[in-house]
Amino acid sequence: MTRVLRAGPLSTRVSPRSLAVTTALAALALAATVTTLVTGDYPLTPVEVLATFLGQGDPFSDFVVLTLRLPRLLTGFLVGAALAASGAILQSLSRNPLASPDVIGFTQGAATGAIAATVVFQASMTTVATSAAVTGLITSAAVYLLALRGGVQGFRLVLVGIGVSAMMLAANSFLLTRTSLESALAAQAWLVGGLNNRGWGHVQVLAATLVVLLPCALALARRLALLEMGDLTATGLGVPAEPTRLALLALSVGLAAVATAAAGPITFVALAAPQLARRLTGSPTPVLVASALTGGLLLLLGDLAVQKLFPTSQLPVGIATGAIGGLYLVWLLAAEWRKGSGR
Q1: CA 222 to CA 285: how far, in whole Å?
Q2: pTM, entire model
Q3: Where are the alpha helices (DSSP H) in the chain?
Q4: For residue 336, how far is the Cα from the chain centroid?
Q5: What's the burial of 146, exposed, middle or buried (CB within 10 Å: 0-12/13-18/19+)?
Q6: How many other C-beta atoms can be found within 10 angstroms of the C-beta atom of residue 240?
């Protein structure tokens, strides 16, 4: 059973279960936020954190909360949300749970532009994000065109994307060999994916991207659901298949590219979060908001875990997501194989 929510001329259908899951995810994200802000090398009380937000905190609390913890926390949540929304769009378009920006090359393509801007030109965050978006779009266009044979089939898209991802990884390695050792080490650390030393500049770029792109994706959510039913069905229901697919693909790439520019190519969040969101909500159609909240929560919890388990080593969160995501990918491949073989 679904309910219709209206806001002026806009309306959407929401099931009670999806609404309950979305609310629970938001509450968990808030709990993770409070835990992150009050714990660490310099513990604070909730009252001290609240006083800082109200402009009545002492200089030490202001520095810890507003300079060290909050920008990192917001960057992590926004990166996770952007990657998960990107993965949800891509998996729905391809009708393949293995399709995600990091698996089929979009993230590596965005990383190429970000590395070039960082290593070669020592560019600002805005320029790095723009460069990542441009190379991400170019990579996605290459994958799309190479997979286009009488329409884009999900399995073909994944295979082509894996090949393009390997090529972009080689290009990234080549760029690292053409710079100084110090710059190469810094870029290699960035390639792991992490949230160390992230500031308000990263938050601003990510927030602006999500404010623009996520509503556009939500506006196309109904068309996305119809595309899952096949191009013929979607066209019969009045949806222009290829223009809609290209628009959604551009939105997916834009979200993944800016997230990659901000935190490096953090793996498997875009792969796992949309599937977890669908299972939690029990929805047969894309759930972009729940996916975004799931991705943000996963990255918050992952970063909180590495901070508590490895307090002295500053372990990048990309290592944690890669380790856990690798296990998830093995399980997903096994599940897909069993489904395909009828076992």
Answers
A1: 9
A2: 0.86
A3: 16-38, 46-53, 59-62, 70-94, 106-115, 125-147, 154-177, 181-192, 200-219, 221-227, 231-236, 241-263, 269-281, 288-309, 317-341
A4: 23
A5: middle
A6: 13
State residue 197 phi and psi, 5-degree precision: 60, 30
Location of structure tokens 């994200």: 29
**For residues 136 and 134, what is the distance between their CA atoms, to the nearest angstrom?**
5
Structure tokens at 247: 């628009």
Task: Name the residue type at position 86.
Answer: S
From the list 139, 80, 98, the residue with the least C-alpha distance to 260 is 80
Tokens read off for 85: 């929304």
Q: Establish how many alpha carbons lie within 13 A of residue 198's alpha carbon, considering only the half-sphere containing its beta carbon.
A: 31
Q: Find the helix or strand (DSSP H, E) in which 11 lies.
A: strand 10-14
DSSP three-state, residue 281: helix
For the chain, the farthest-separated pair of C-alpha atoms sits apart, in whole angstroms, at: 64
From 289, 308, 288, select the one nearest 300 (Cα to Cα). 308
pLDDT band at 10 (very low <50, low <70, confident <90, very high): very low
Dihedral pair phi/psi, residue 6, rounded to 5°: -120, 140
C-alpha 40, offset from chain centre: 26
Amino acid at residue number 13:
R
Each residue's pLDDT tens digit, 107-164: 888 888 878 877 777 666 667 777 877 887 888 888 878 877 766 666 677 788 888 8
Q: Dump pLDDT digits (tens) for 69-111.
A: 999 999 999 999 999 999 999 888 888 777 788 777 888 888 8
CA distance 274 to 97: 9
CA angle (157, 134, 123) in 5-degree steps: 140
Q: Note every long-range contact of 273-279, with CB atoms under 8 Å and residues 24 or more positions apart, other chains counting.
A: 273/80, 273/83, 273/84, 273/87, 273/88, 273/298, 274/84, 274/87, 274/88, 274/91, 274/100, 275/91, 275/97, 275/332, 277/21, 277/84, 277/88
